[in-house]
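haha ok so turns out i had the wrong file open the whole time. this is the CORRECT one, sorry everyone. sequence first:
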Amino acid sequence: MKAPSILLVAPEGEEQSQIQFILEYSEYSVRLAEPTALESALMEGGDYYAAILISGGGLAQSVRVLRQTTPDVPLVIMRKRNDGTPLPSPVESEITATLEWPTTYPQLMALMHRLRGRRDRNDGNGTVPRSGHLSTRDVAEKRRPLELFRSLSGTSTAIQRAWRLIEQVADTEVTVLILGESGTGKEVVARNLHYHSSRRSKPFVPVNCGAIPGELLESELFGHEKGAFTGALSSRQGRFEMAEGGTLFLDEIGDMPLAMQVKLLRVLQERCFERVGSNRTVDCDVRVIAATHRNLEEEIGAGRFREDLYYRLNVFPIEVPALRERSEDIPALVADLIARIEYEKRGSIRLTAAALETLKHYEWPGNVRELANLIERLTVLYPYGVVDVGDLPEKISRRIGREDELSAKGSPPPSIAEAPPAEEGNSGRQAASIETGTSQIRLPEEGLDLKEHLSALEKDLIRQALEESQGVVAHAAQRLKMRRTTLVEKLRKYNLREE
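then structure:
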């Protein structure tokens, strides 16, 4: 997905470079424009901007030009800290916000999210902005509904394997059995199978077999006739009839009573059934997709699940990985969950890189459902704000803190590149040595500048990690066992950003 675009109107110089770096670090796409050449820059553009930041002189002229060409885009004036000079009236009446410079990352991100929230509220009718451009999110929403694809975002090997299986079996009539822990998104897989099949124009009907009492499940699935049992005051369609021509999703099939398993097996084999209280056979054209968090082979051994039904369902199994097995997908999942909240006009938040890294180290016993609940909670607690590590629940941040402490205690001190041994025949001075956990490192006779030596070593290792990670900072940080934010600071310190 394309990053949101920011137009930065500022004279070329150090301040422009600093603002650009912070925005790009925050995953915004930044386009630069000189105040003196603003009109030509806008004519060459065509992007939809999330915001326009203006710094430097000529404010009145810049604001006038921008309001004529981009009337809906938020304008932010950047001013030196403690600058008490009043803004010209034409400028003050047109701008959306002011931002003191120098600023901090949390302040800038909080402002960007307030602007996004303001735009969401003002554009709640879903119309195209007057500037004539659709945002990236608008285009994505028109392409496909968000609710179908959440929980399956990511590029991990495990989720890509699941996607390949979905693509292979979706447009067939094969019965699919979806396996995985609670909260991993099994229903999302089922919806995707239906959505990508030739049955997508017909109903998708889900049934949670574990939530319906056994004595009512037969009526729920097959329907009943009037007077079939006490309280049956009228005839009623069952879920099989509701799903005619489409897909029936039997969730938590492992919790289905044995008596119902026999009747379901007959429907799968004969493609017909009778309503409760009727002897009339009803033919059905329904694709069945089942799911369970239980180990059905163990359930068979315990006598709680029929072996013949298991083999009837287990034609094409798809296993949905637990979130802890694909932690590298968490940033993409968080982005999708936030996009869904924004789509429903329920607010927005942004997580810092450190917070995302912390989430990647949590075990997630509740899987994607737990992650989704966390994002919902953070949206309520910090509406249109920036969430850092300290804002996360204690059970997440405390666990990561303990892991970091244990890692620090168990790790050996940083090593120094081994110097060549002293040549024979030198004076009787012996080289001092430093003892580490694994080897002995010798200090040259002439000594060395330790700070400079360690900095050179650190710089070299960072460069190697970047090369091996094809320039992807997050992957390089993983190789160096450090947080992404820490590595970014070191890149700035050693001026490695452009390398």
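The first strand starts at residue 5 and ends at 9.
again sry for the mixup
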